[in-house]
Design goal:
Layout: E1 4-9, H1 14-25, E2 31-38, H2 51-70, E3 75-81, H3 91-105, E4 109-112, H4 120-132, E5 141-145, E6 163-167, H5 169-179, H6 195-209, E7 213-222
Parallel strand pairs: 1-2, 1-4, 2-3, 4-5
Antiparallel strand pairs: 5-7, 6-7
Helix pairs in contact: 1-5, 2-5, 3-4, 5-6
């Protein structure tokens, strides 16, 4: 990786679960920005426009800011499209959001969701990212990350990493501490969204790559 790195997340917390380790590793070295396409909370309410839903959306956005600030990320954008309903949003609308972010931020590397994910919002974001990062966009490399509680539940398709970033224990500790800001999302092991699960996945990816800890990604496209 080099220069600016854009992380595209369907919901607040996907960024930490997928890329929290490398954000910690490259803190102060690379310039990160995170964009959140959907808000991640309103799908839990019968009326996604209710007062209660809006309160939870605001709460989750504040958690995201605290988590990113902890990891040293100062640039982020919230688009707050309705959670669980991205398939009802015109694809071009999501495309334009990502295209505009790329135009303004000018990243060389983009991280996005995986086709293996069970979450349909993730698929919509992946599709739009592929379009927005097409050759000529200025983006040199595009990679998919894995998100606990989605990627490992995509039973009909499996996540097949081909890039591993070596991490130190401090990077995994930072990732766990960042995720702990999401008090409405974190749960106890063996649920995937737990600090124990984060550590286990990092160790497993480390075993696969000959390291103590790693984060794994699938390379979608690279221009040399």
């Amino acid at each position: 990786m080099e220069g600016k790195v854009l992380i595209i997340a369907a919901h607040p917390d996907d960024d930490i679960l997928g890329c929290g380790g490398i954000i910690s590793r490259y803190k102060g070295v690379l310039d990160f920005k995170v964009i959140f396409i959907s808000e991640g909370s309103s799908c839990r309410f019968n009326n996604h426009e209710s007062k209660e839903a809006k309160i939870e959306i605001e709460k989750r956005n504040k958690m995201a800011i605290k988590a990113l600030n902890f990891l040293g990320v100062k640039e982020y954008s919230f688009y707050n499209l309705p959670c669980g309903r991205l398939d009802q949003i015109p694809q071009i609308q999501i495309n334009k959001i990502i295209e505009n972010e790329i135009k303004l931020f000018k990243p060389k590397t983009v991280f996005t969701h995986s086709l293996a994910d069970s979450n349909k919002d993730h698929h919509k974001v992946l599709d739009s990212t592929i379009i927005a990062t097409r050759p000529g966009s200025g983006v040199k490399e595009v990679m998919s990350y894995e998100v606990l509680s989605s990627t490992e539940w995509g039973f009909l398709k499996s996540f097949k990493p081909n890039i591993f970033f070596k991490l130190e224990k401090k990077n995994i500790d930072d990732k766990c501490k960042a995720f702990e800001f999401y008090t409405t999302e974190i749960k106890k092991y063996p649920y995937p969204r737990s600090t124990d699960s984060i550590k286990i996945l990092a160790k497993m990816r480390g075993i696969q790559s000959g390291n103590n800890y790693s984060e794994a990604f699938t390379l979608i496209r690279k221009n040399r």
